[in-house]
Structure formats: C-alpha cells, structure tokens
Amino acid sequence: MVQANKKSKEPQQPTVFDLQNYLKQQKGVVEQALDRSIAIAKPEKIYEAMRYSLLAGGKRLRPILCLATCQLTGGTVEMAMPTACALEMIHTMSLIHDDLPAMDNDDFRRGKPTNHKVYGDDIAILAGDGLLAYAFEYVATQTKNVAPENILRVVACLGRTVGAAGLVGGQVLDLESEGKSDITAETLSFIHTHKTGALLEASVVSGAILANASAEDIDKLSQYAQNIGLAFQIIDDILDITATDEQLGKTAGKDLSAQKATYPSLWGLEKSRLKARELVDNAIAQVADYGAAAEPLRAVAKYIVTRDR
Ligand code: GRG
User: 233: how many CB neighbours lie within 10 A of its CB?
Assistant: First the structure.
C-alpha cells in the first residue's frame, strides 16, 4: 500500500488575505509611479508645489481601487497605472483647493503644512489647476494597450466626476450648508455622494472600463463603490470627532468648529457606525460572484470602516 503523503492529509487552511501587506505594497507601487509622473521643469516653483502635495503621502486608496478593479476584470496594472496616477492627481488638487482660506482654511494636511501655507494662495491655486490639467493629459498620453474608445470613456468619466456634476457640485452645496442647523439627510447625502463618493466610484469604474469589462460588471462595481463611498464619508465624519490631529495629519474637530452638518450630528456616533457597517456589508455582497479574486475589494471595504486615520 502506498503511504499517503503526510502533508496532503493535513487540513487545508483557507488563505487569509493580508490587507496590511497588500495596502503597503500597492501604496509603494503607486508612489513610485507618482514620483515618475511629474518631473521638475521651468518654472520650477509650480512643479515643486505640485510635487509637494502629490508626494506628501496619504492612503492612496483611489489608485489602489483602480488597479484592483482593472485586475479583477481581466486587465493589468500597466493598463491602469496612468489613470490610477491621474485619480491621485485629481484627489490631491481637490485637497489643495479645499484647504485654501476661501474654502476650509486648513493649515495641515497629510501631516504637513498645507500647500498654500508653504507656497502662498496664488501658487496653491495654480498647483491645483496644474495637477487637474495634467491628470487628463497623463491619461490621454500615457495609457498603453487599451482601446482608444475606452481611454475616451475614462476621460469622460473623470471630467464628469470633477465638474459640477461631481466634486465641484458637492463642494458648492457643502459651502452653502455651513452654519445651517436644518440640513436634511438628503442634502448631506447629496454633498457626500458628489464630494467624496464620485471620485471613489470613478476610481473603481475606470479600472473596469480600461479592462473592457462588461456593462454588468461595471454596474456591480458601481454599486460596490457607492456603498463604500458613503461608508468612507461616515467614518471620515466620525474620525473628525474621535481621532487626534496626529492620527489624521490635519486639524481634528473642524466639522464642529465650522458648524458643518455631519452624519454623527444627524444620527449620533453609534447609529453612524452601524450605518457604515451596513453599507460595507452591502458593498461586499455586490462582489460576491467574483470569489477569491475580489478579496482585495472586500478587504478594502472592511478597512474603510476599521481605519483610524
Ligand atoms: C475638482 C475642479 C475640482 C475642484 C475641487 C475643493 C473641491 C472642488 C472639492 C472638495 C473635495 C474634497 C476635499 C472632498 C473630501 C474627500 C475626502 C474624504 C478626503 C480625504 O480622503 P482620504 O482620507 O485622504 O483618502 P488621503 O490623505 O489618505 O488621500
């Protein structure tokens, strides 16, 4: 009788997805690509200001999501990297403008003085504009091995996401709502689906478009993204109350001092946490059909509600 291999009799342990390691590794890959994406040219000051904020750290969640959905739907990291960098350029420019005295007036971001504190308001506005324009140029000129019509779809998706139908619209309503005590759940949801959710959704969807994913896949991934987008903002509101300046890399407690309506102000901390967990469960349910291949997306969704920064 053949002696059975002792090893094969051992029960198979399900592989546990190592989220911390995955995030660290993907962040490293993205940061190398970002560093290569913008070289210093003349006039040096504007390139330095753009690089200052772009390379200041951050979680790099938007590029990580874009790379993950591109791979999930059959594409490669190389196909998605220019768009992943563009998403981070757009996100960074929105932070630079959001921090300006005319908007949220913040002195710290990502643990460093804000762009306008270092370079002045004028250069900070232009650094944001420079990053925004370059994001589109970068997708258009650097995307390789993707059908031109899919590159065009990504450019259109990004344009809609940053404009009045997305970030800009959300920011306007946010500014108009400051100091008002009668903000409804509908208004709050409008602000956040536009200001925060739209770019997270574009990150998830653009990765799938680049991989030429089916309409059905794109629809499921959009649903996933909408759920994590809202959960992300709820946790952001909670952290503004519960976390320290050091944890956040910016001034905590700003929502209260600026009299902003937030989910905790509307529902309280406990209900807000519960709602964020429900949204993450919904997001995870949307990617159930992909099996183990969607483990990065499931893990990122869980991270969104457990993060402390
Ligand atoms: C887009 C043309 C254009 C203008 C900008 C200022 C503005 C209009 C919109 C504000 C957008 C904004 C700042 C939304 C907040 C999103 C948010 C929750 C940011 C924090 O994201 P994290 O936690 O940050 O991912 P890190 O630093 O980790 O990247």
Answer: 24
Residue whose C-alpha is closest to residue 301's, from 283, 288, 287 = 283
130 Cβ partners below 8 Å, 6+ apart? 46, 47, 49, 50
Query: Using CA atoms, how far apart are residues 41 and 22, in angstroms rounded to an integer?
Result: 34
Candidates 171, 249, 127; CA nearest to 116 is 127
Strand partners for 109:
112
| Separation of alpha carbons 47 and 256, rounded Å | 35
Give the H/E segment covering residue 105: none
> With the CA atoms of 171, 172, 176 and 180 taken in that order, what torsion angle do they form, in degrees rounded to the nearest 10?
-30
Residue spans of beta strands (DSSP E) within the chain? 108-109, 112-113
pTM tops 0.70, yes or no: yes
In angstroms, rounded to a whole number, what is the distance separating the alpha carbons of residues 220 and 134? 30
Dig out the tokens for 301 from the structure. 């969704």
User: What residues flank ligand 1, with Cβ below 6 Å?
Assistant: 58-59, 61, 91, 94-95, 97-98, 103, 110, 132, 162, 167-168, 171, 195-196, 236
For the 27-306 domain, the top CATH level (class) is: mainly alpha
211 secondary structure, DSSP code: T
Atom 24 of ligand 1, residue of closest alpha carbon: 58
Please state, in angstroms and rounded to a whole number, the distance separating the CA atoms of residues 181 and 156. 36
User: Per-residue pLDDT tens for 103-138?
Assistant: 999 999 999 999 999 999 999 999 999 999 999 999
Q: Which two tokens stand for residue 255?
A: 């929502």
Closest atom, ligand 1, to C-alpha of 97? 6
The domain spans of the chain are: 27-306
